[in-house]
Design goal:
transmembrane helix, mainly alpha, DUF4199 domain-containing protein, 8 helices
């Protein structure tokens, strides 16, 4: 009976379900992961401003992480339970589907990061090393120039330290990337469950999937 109900869902309902919503925002997350993984190394280190190279090195991973969290939260906010189970409170089903949608986002982003790590460690390793060798002295010089202007400057940073930071991953890092993918999916799934619980607490409607005005 449930399978028949699933077959009768409209395309719009499928888009609002956890799979459709998760795939949509997960695809956006994959695009962000690709940009975060390769944007820096596609720049010309000889002509790109040193401040931009330094800023991207420091803040691009943080911006990407914030974007993943935002996408997972949006997925949890947009999802609507479309496969209702008799006897199960609607709010519980909302929490379940919100967690699933956000978890799909985390899974897709984690798998993308795993693939990108493998590509950086093999096919693009030489290009990344060449970029690191040319960009590191300029980034270190910019950081040192900025450091002198501070009243309480941090410890100096050498070009060798920056170059080590920019080195490509190794094949051995794939295990760490796989672990991070699993943890990311769990974390974003938990975030989605929290968003779903808050929706159920403050704005969930009834079995029709509608929400009370004001949420």
């Amino acid at each position: 009976m449930y399978a028949l109900a699933g077959m009768e869902r409209t395309p719009q309902e499928r888009k609002q379900g956890p799979l459709g919503v998760g795939l949509f925002y997960g695809t956006l997350g994959v695009l962000i992961a690709v940009v975060e993984g390769f944007a820096l190394f596609l720049l010309d280190p000889r002509t790109t401003s040193a401040w931009l190279l330094a800023a991207l090195t420091d803040f691009l991973p943080l911006l990407a992480l914030a974007s993943y969290i935002l996408l997972a939260a949006l997925a949890a906010l947009r999802v609507r339970p479309v496969r209702l189970e008799p006897g199960v409170p609607y709010r519980s089903q909302l929490m379940r589907d919100a967690a699933l949608a956000a978890g799909i986002v985390g899974l897709m982003v984690g798998l993308a990061a795993l693939v990108l790590t493998g590509l950086q460690a093999t096919l693009f390793a030489d290009e990344i090393r060449a970029f690191a060798g040319e960009a590191a002295p300029r980034i270190a010089a910019y950081i040192e120039e900025t450091r002198r202007e501070l009243s309480d400057p941090p410890p100096p940073v050498s070009a060798a330290q920056v170059e080590r930071l920019l080195q490509p991953p190794t094949p051995g890092d794939l295990g760490r990337a796989l672990g991070n993918a699993a943890l990311g999916a769990i974390f974003l799934g938990a975030l989605g469950a929290l968003v779903g619980a808050l929706r159920g607490r403050f704005g969930a409607g009834g079995p029709e999937g509608k929400e009370e005005p004001g949420f």
